[in-house]
Amino acid sequence: MAFLRNWLRRYRNRRHVRPWALAVPIVILLITVPLVRPLRQPDPRSISDDELARLAMTQSIVEDDRLDIGASPFSVTRNKVQRNGRWYSNQPPMMAVLLSGPYRLMYRMGYSFESSPHWVMFMLTLLGTTLPVAGAGGLVYRMGRLFELRRPWRTGLALAVVLGSGLVSYATVLNAHAPAAALALASAGCLVHVTITNRRMHGSIWLIVAGACAALSATFEPAAIVFVGLFAAVVLALRWTAFQRMAGLAVFLAGASVPLAAHVALVQRTTGNVWQGSGLGEGSGFGVQGSEVAGSVFAPLNPEPRTLNPDEDEDPEPESAWRSFWTGAGRVATAFVGRHGVLSHFPVVLIGILGVTLVMHRHWPATTKVLATATLVGAGVIIVAYALRTSDWTQAMFGTRWFVVFLPLTVFWAGVWLRRRHRPVSWALAGVLLAFSMVVSLIGATGPIPRDGFNVYTAAGAVRNLVHPREPEGGPSSSAAFAGAR
Description:
Blueprint: H1 2-13, H2 19-32, H3 37-40, H4 49-64, E1 80-83, E2 86-89, H5 93-108, H6 117-143, H7 151-164, H8 177-196, H9 200-220, H10 225-236, H11 242-268, H12 290-293, H13 310-313, H14 321-337, H15 349-361, H16 366-389, H17 407-412, H18 414-418, H19 424-444, H20 458-467, H21 480-485
Antiparallel strand pairs: 1-2
C-alpha cells in the first residue's frame, strides 16, 4: 500500500498536459475539420476517382465480404482493373482493409453508405487522413527535441512542417498520401528516439516499430518503399557494437516484413500487381462497365475508359542520347518548378534542404547525418522516378500528391537552421518562403483532388475552383441516391 500511495503521489504531482505539445494537433484540427470534403462538397458526384475506388473496396469488404468492387455503387470509378472477370480497385489495398475495421463497427451500429453516406464518409476521412495529419504535427514537436529547441520553437517548427509542406492540403480528403507521409515521419521519429536512448532492449522495440511504420507507409504509397532501405542504413550507423547493429537491422527488417507480406498477400488476391496505385505510368487497365453506370448516382459523369495507346506513346523518330538526357533533365526541372513543382508550391522546402547541409558541417551524430541524407536521397529518387515515367500530370492533383510522402520530413530539417543565429534579412526571407508555402497549402486544402485534376498551376486552379465552383450536371444529389444505386 505504501508503494501505491507513493506512486499515486508522484503521478499527481507529474505534469500531465503540455500546452505547447497539444497546441499543434488542436490548431491543425481546427483548420482541417471544417474543410473535410464530405462537409464542403457533400454531392457524391464530386468525389474523385481515387476516393471512389477506396470507398468501393471498403464497402465491399464489410458489406459483401469480398475484395472485388463490382457490386458497389462506387465502382463507377475509373481507377479499377479487371482480372478473371472481376473488377478490383487500382489502389493499394492496405488502407481500405484498415478502414474496413471502423466501417464494420459503424455498419453494425446501423450507419452505412446507404443510410448515412455523408456521415460515414466524414468519419472515414477523419480517421483515415485528418487525424493522422494532426498526429504527425504532434510527432514533429516531439522529434524537435533532436535540435534542442525551446518548446515555442518546436511548436512553430511542427506547424511549419504540417502547414507549409502541403501535408495539410491532403488532410481534407480520403487519400493514401497523407497517412503515408505521417507513417514515414513516425518511422523517422522512432529512429530519432533510438539514437538518444542508451538501453539496447528498449531501442529494439522502437526499431521494430520504425520498420513497421516505414513498410506500412510503403503499402499505402508504393514509392515510399525507398525509405525502408534508406532507414535501414540509419540502423547500421548507430553507436552500437557491430553485432548489436546487425541484430538491430534484423529487428528493423522483421518489423517491416509484416506489412509488406500482408500487402503482397492482398495484391495477389486482387490485381496481382504489387506496384498498383503508384502512378508511375502504368495507366493501362482503367475502365468502367456500362451496366454499372446506368441508373447510378454517378451516371451524369459518364466516365470513359482510360487506356494508353502505344502508338501515341512511342516517338516516331529515335532520340539521340543527348536529346534523351536533356528531355529527362527538363522533366525533372519541371517537377521542381513547373505547374506541379515542389518549389513553385512549397519553397520552404529550401530551408529544409539547407538544414540537411548544416547537419553535414556540424558535429552531429552519424545516425542524424545518415537520416538527413536518407531524406534527401529518398526525395530525389521519388522525384526522378515520377518525372521520367509520368505522362499525365493532371493526375498529380494539387502540387504533386506523389511527393507528399517526403515533403514533411524534408521540411523537418529546417529545425537545424533554427538553431543558428541569422541576420534580419535571412529571417525575413525565411518568413516569406514559409508564408507563401502556408498560404498555398491552405488553398489546396479546399479541394486537393478534383475529379479531372489540374491543367494549370494548381494553386491558381484551386483558387478558381474555390471562387467559381463547378456544379455537377444533372442527376440526383441526395443521400437517398446511394440507396437506390445499391
